[in-house]
Design a protein that fits this description.
With about 130 residues, the chain is mainly alpha-helical. It is rod-shaped. It is built from three helices and two strands. Strand 1 and strand 2 form a beta hairpin. It has one domain. Helix content is about 75%, strand content about 5%. A two-stranded antiparallel ribbon has the order 1-2.
Length: about 130
């Protein structure tokens, strides 16, 4: 290895590579931040929706005199809650996979040129 002014020839290449990798890491970190923001918005919307629905159900049950009708309202609410729980589990898995793909991009030998599009539609957005 020969030196020019005391600097080995491979140092500029290493500096360039480190600069490129740092820029790539910043891009990946930005993508992860955006995804986390989307996830937070989804869960805040879900909390608001569930809270509103629970209060509406509570008022319906309180305003109904017949016990059978109260039971039916509760059963409908529980059925909807179970369906939403399944949707929430699927969304959580989908988000974990998307975040994992983004994080693995940090360890790629070269920055990815094309990535699989991430699915960001939530069940609440379609309602």
């Amino acid at each position: 290895m020969s030196d020019t002014n005391g600097i080995p020839h491979d140092v500029p290449a290493m500096v360039s590579t480190l600069r490129d990798r740092a820029a790539h890491a910043a891009e990946v970190q930005s993508e992860i931040g955006k995804k986390l923001g989307e996830m937070n918005q989804h869960w805040l919307a879900r909390i608001q929706s569930d809270s509103t629905e629970a209060w509406q159900t509570l008022f319906k049950v309180g305003g109904t005199a017949a016990v059978g009708e109260k039971i039916k309202l509760c059963e409908l609410w529980i059925e909807g809650a179970m369906k939403k729980a399944a949707e929430d589990a699927a969304y959580a898995i989908e988000c974990a996979q998307a975040l994992g793909r983004m994080e693995m991009g940090l360890f790629a030998i070269a920055p990815p040129t094309a990535t699989e599009p991430t699915k960001t539609d939530s069940p609440l957005d379609n309602a």
